[in-house]
Design brief:
Low-confidence stretches: none
CATH topology: Rossmann fold
Shape: globular
Distance between the termini: 41 Å
Mean pLDDT: 94
CATH architecture: 3-Layer(aba) Sandwich
Radius of gyration: 18 Å
Strand content: 15-25%
Strand order of the largest sheet: 3-4-5-2-1-6-7-9-8
Largest sheet: 9 strands, mixed
Number of domains: 1
Order of helices and strands: HHEHEHHEEEHEHEHHEHHHE
Helix content: 40-55%
CATH class: Alpha Beta
């Protein structure tokens, strides 16, 4: 079966995000260009995605505020993510934005960008030139590139094509990506980053606390869909998530489960979204939040003080 079921998780996540956006959980003017039809998801799923988006965005905004227009973003397993366009709408200026995913996924994304005038126009604004191949897109400061993250040589080549600068502050983002990659490959990737980039922050959203019945059910559901959780060893708890960074040359790491992340969201914003849908099973939501986390790793002290306060 190979990597196809893992690629399919992109479609599922994108549909979940579109559903939550349609209900008013957060604004995203671009997700509809990548996702057409959706089935309505359960309220706890929508609330889970809201916490995920808000939690990851908190660190993205902190990083960009600190790094300024010199910032680079490398989004691993980006799928149909729309962050580049949302940052443009906010008037955020960064020096380079690179999305990486399997070539099968990036070829779909490139095709969708090519046929969607609003997506293409926002890219054109920066440079006036957009170059497409079957799996890749290059423009002034946006690149969508097909690559297997397990192949460091190929990854280096792609990043060089995108003109990534190894001495600029770089934000690395991975959302439910590393868990599908063999632990030794993830360690090699993180080791390569820490030995190559001089300054940066990694945001990783992923499962944690998987050694209980609820975790077993989650893993069973994913495996039933053919998803090989090759990197699940790092998802035992928050400490194993952090040690993934500190054992591969990163200066430091912190991690929070999604219960903590959700509690840190501004009370008025929580009140607003909790009115959108009636949630019958509060306990199920708490269990879900206990089994996901956000972990950050930093290469230098510039980003060591980042916290979850939103």
């Amino acid at each position: 079966m190979g990597d196809e079921p893992v690629m399919a998780t992109n479609d599922d996540a994108s549909e979940c995000k579109k559903g939550a956006v349609q209900l008013g959980y957060w604004n995203d003017n671009y997700i509809s260009y990548f996702v057409r039809n959706i089935d309505r998801r359960a309220p706890e799923i929508n609330r889970g995605y809201f916490a995920r988006v808000k939690g990851v965005d908190n660190f993205i905004q902190k990083f960009i505020s600190r790094a300024g227009s010199n910032a680079q973003v490398i989004n691993f397993g980006a799928g149909f993510d729309t962050l580049y366009w949302r940052l443009k709408d906010e008037g955020v200026v960064i020096s380079n934005y690179v999305e990486l995913d399997f070539p099968t996924v990036t070829s779909k994304k490139c095709y969708m960008i090519k046929r969607s005038k609003p997506l293409l126009e926002r890219i054109y604004e920066q440079d006036g030139e957009v170059r497409f191949s079957s799996t890749d897109l290059h423009s002034g400061n946006y690149h969508c590139l097909g690559v297997d993250l397990r192949n460091i040589t190929q990854l280096k080549d792609k990043l060089n094509q995108a003109e990534i600068k190894y001495d600029k502050p770089t934000l690395f983002i991975a959302e439910c990506v590393l868990v599908y990659i063999e632990s030794e490959c993830v360690n090699r990737l993180l080791q390569w980053i820490s030995s190559t980039f001089s300054t940066g922050l990694f945001i990783n959203y992923e499962m944690c606390n998987m050694n209980d019945t609820f975790g077993d059910i989650m893993m069973g559901n994913l495996r039933a869909r053919g998803c090989n959780l090759a990197g699940i060893a790092h998802c035992r708890n928050l400490d194993t998530q952090k040690s993934r960074f500190t054992s591969t040359g990163w200066l430091g790491s912190r991690a929070w489960d999604m219960v903590q992340i959700y509690q840190s969201i501004e009370p008025t914003e929580k009140t607003r979204i909790e009115k959108l849908e009636f949630l019958d099973e509060q306990e199920l939501l708490v269990q879900l939040f206990q089994h996901y986390c956000i972990c950050i790793g930093w290469l230098n002290n510039e980003f060591a003080d980042f916290d979850i306060h939103i």
